[in-house]
Amino acid sequence: MSNKVPQIRFNGYSDAWEERKLEELTLVLTGFPFKNEDFVDNGKYLVITNGNIQNESSTVDVSLGNRVDDLSDEIKERYYLNKNDILVTMDGTVGRTAKVVDDNMILAQRVARLVANKNTEFVYQWLNQGSFFNEMTKVSHGGTIKHISLNEISNYSATVPSNNIEQQKIGSFFKQFDNTIDLHQRKLDLLKEQKKGYLQKMFPKNGAKVPELRFAGFADDWEERKLGDFIKISREQEVKKVDLHEEKIGYYVLAMRTFDFEGYIDYSKPYWINNFESADDDLFLNRKEFAIIDADMDASLPKIGKVLLNATNNKFLLAAHIRKIKVDVQVDSIFAYALMRTTELVERLKLEANGSISKRLLDKNVYKQKVYLPIHLEEQQQIGEFFWTLEETIALHQRKLDLLKKQKKDFYNNYLFEVG
Hints:
Layout: E1 18-21, H1 22-25, E2 26-29, E3 45-48, E4 67-68, H2 73-79, E5 86-89, E6 97-99, E7 105-107, E8 111-116, H3 120-128, H4 131-139, H5 150-154, E9 157-160, H6 164-201, E10 223-226, E11 231-233, E12 251-254, E13 272-273, E14 284-285, E15 290-293, E16 295-296, E17 307-309, E18 316-318, E19 322-327, H7 333-341, H8 343-351, E20 359-360, H9 363-367, E21 370-373, H10 377-414
Parallel strand pairs: 3-7, 12-18
Antiparallel strand pairs: 1-9, 2-8, 3-4, 5-6, 5-8, 10-21, 11-19, 12-13, 14-18, 15-17, 15-19, 16-20
Helix pairs in contact: 3-6, 6-10, 7-10
């Protein structure tokens, strides 16, 4: 038994927490061994595998996977997932957890299903605060792809409140946190989708000379130009991995890993550096400046040719393949950024990528791209101002979301769970 207790507790509770194995709090099960011939198009039931739990969401990803139909009553009874069941990845990135919130899902083999005896939310938060993931990573086995067993999951142990009401209160506390985080995430996702819609409507496409949506007072055709007429891609620099650290001091580094698939900054990687105070300012991305990623290791090229705008008050050090774009004073810079964010242009740039394993986008192939610009600078400026306001709003919501996640992590690690 452990006599350890967390630093902060709800009023009225003073009993020592007790060590418990996971199998004492839940049933630990797995799914059905489906075969490829079992899958059908548009089947009623979504088959849940490890792939549905590999992101950082707290819920199962239902946007991908195979489907099945005409299941026997026995299979449905044993493997049908109920809302609030807890799932754990057993292959790949082992120890990830997610909750079931949708209907019509059947569990596949090699995913663990945890059915709590009581206080499901507490059990989920207890597993999700970090120690469980670290322990499963430690006990995992295998070569390139790691694995854990049901027995290793069942034997995980940590201290929990002996009082069920205290467990319930802790679970409810963190569920409120999750609900707030989910709300802010939905708002952020909606803003990003709105931006995609505006990019499609406010720039000409398919050879047109005017966009579908324009500000009042402008009716002239846009003029054809080459990107190289008004942009210049700055030189790049190498940032050594040995100089990077996890401590959040100095500058955050924009690199291939921290430039995410959507063209935003991914702060989840420990890419901080503190010894570049005297570096050339061209090697930093300052507020209202944007950069392009000119290389990609992925065969489908999800990042190459995309641009990222700094809509924060911070400055970021640019690593290899992340290169600042300078815009001629005769063209509005944020307009140029939005133009280069359009899907049509990014897809064209993908086709220009050279190389076998690591694809590279040469400057000359960016410069030669033909685009359309408003002949009036005022129209460019209005479009630029519109997208700048949108980008600032997205950055603000991202900061709020990051702060909420940090607050939740602080409560996990320092207050309501004993983790040492």
